[in-house]
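Notes from the 1:1 (GR / supervisor)

We went over the backlog. Supervisor wanted to see one worked example end to end before approving the batch request, so GR pasted a single chain during the call. The sequence is below; no edits were made to it. Supervisor asked that the structure be written out right there so they could see what the output format looks like.
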Amino acid sequence: MTHRTSHIAHFPDFGSLPYRRWIHGLSYLTILVLIFLIGCAPLVPSPPYAPFSETETAQLISNLRAEGRRISSFHGAGRLRYRDREKESELNLLAAGGRPFKVRLEVSHPWGRPLFFIVLDGDNTSVLSFVDHKFFKGQSNRLPMDLFFLLRLDLDSIWQILSGNVPVLPHSKAASLKPYEVTLYNGEGEVTQIISFFPRSLLPRSVFFPYEGITIMLSDFKQDDFGPRPLKIEIARKDKNQSVEIRYRNLTRNKPIPEEIFSLDPPPGFEVIEQNE
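Structure output shown during the call:
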């Protein structure tokens, strides 16, 4: 009697340890292949951001003007850092402003000794210098001190900057030529102002005044009852390698300020220098 050997297919034991290791190894290999393929895929650049539309540009300028009109007074305290090429000084600053446009600045040593008191009122500028015991009075653009190069701007612009707003100069045309940037032109087609904005918040980031060669940079925004306000304001003249950085510890807006704050007279013994034409 012949015995036949039956050939029965033997299926693997799926629960066995060698088989589980084989499956795990295959899974890891698959993942590595996928990572390699993804890594070799060509990078597709993100589409570039477009400049603002004409409607968006007009709305941004309108918003800046509205924010400026909303503030009627301000007062703040903080530090002022002055850089002039290789030199750097850190001072204390008190600033106050009221409408119609008036500004008072008090600059002192970190330990409190006064250096300069400045009052801007219309076309008149008064500077009380405790450094050389002199009292300057007249037009701001005739003052001899480099520390106050911000005074090259008009009083309206100075007021807006110190109060945490962006001045918008009179212009005939506004256009956005680059992403997050608006350029203002006068009637002759000359650029009078360039305003840039932060990408997400659209808060003002910097303002460039080409005629004066002055750039204003705003940062460290905090919210108050009247909107976001920058606590860090940097004013730079790159052609002269000069900058003034204001860091407000506090900046209060739309609170009453006594009118006598904006009067400044020379104490006895100070030399009076008239700077009128």
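Supervisor's comment: The chain has three helices and 14 strands.
Batch request approved.
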